[in-house]
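Format notes (please read before filing issues)

Several people have asked whether sequences and structure tokens are stored in separate files. They are not. Every record keeps both together, in the order shown below: the sequence lines, then the token lines. Line labels are part of the format and must not be stripped during preprocessing.
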Amino acid sequence: MSTLHDCRDAFAGALIALADEDDRIVAVVNDSVGSSKLGEFGKRFPERLINVGIAEQAMVGVGAGLAASGKVPFVSAASCFLTARALEQVKIDVAYSDRHVVLCGQSPGVAYGELGSTHHSPEDLSWLRAIPGITVVAPTDPAQTAAAVRWAASHDGPVYLRISRMGVPDIPGLDVPFVPGRATRLREGSDVTIIATGTTVAPSLMAAGQLADEGIAARVLAMSTISPVDRETVVEAAVETGAIVTVEEAYVCGLGGAVAEIVVEACPVPMRRVGLRGFAPTGSTHWLFERAGLTEGGIAAAVREVVAMSGR
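Then the structure lines:
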């Protein structure tokens, strides 16, 4: 894999470019200018960066009010605080009110590592996909992050963007205009399908390469939209490959839950969900990935298990 990149840089660069073109673009933060990589945005557009301090509920409410007045607010904060402390405001002020607010969950999953469960946010995908009307997006790499930011600015409705802090490589095939609700097939395979999102796409591709040497042909899908999920592609994968493994830096009821709901209703096949289960202990992000099976080896092990169950 290539050099690793912080997707927050792509997010900030895309937002500055949008703000140059459209004076409706504003950023709202909760004393999170640095962690959102919005320092340069603040220098360029000081009157369009609103810092409410450590007041996440107010931050989302301010964003909804700005949207109601014709602005396009990007509400940016650590995903653990944005989606937990302000969940009611996200539900009512943004989703129920159908406001064009772009919620930017920075450093999601277990990116904060040693800071522990107060700063981990493995539940964000599960919470937000349960709220009607919000498009939930977990971009895979910097190019797709920038494309998703541009799409979110033009989309007339609520959006949640999960912006990775953990370094990820560029993934060929994703440097195209972002289309919500559509998975991208990154590798062909007929024995099993690995459906991954965000930071877990790269290790899933590595696992597929390892499995190919063992005679297992694993299809790999990047499922960047968790809600609405690409139902047609999931059903196609179940029918054509007979087994599915989902992989996410989140509780397995996020992407895994969304895919399982489709599979059990439309085409039941053996399935495994790789991700977090229960509160993660304090430790480095790398160690937490290993513990949850989110590495090349862990994903490959889950695939072997489900292939054995499928009888292929």
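For reference, the curators noted about this record: The chain has two domains: 7-163, 184-310. The longest strand covers residues 244-251.
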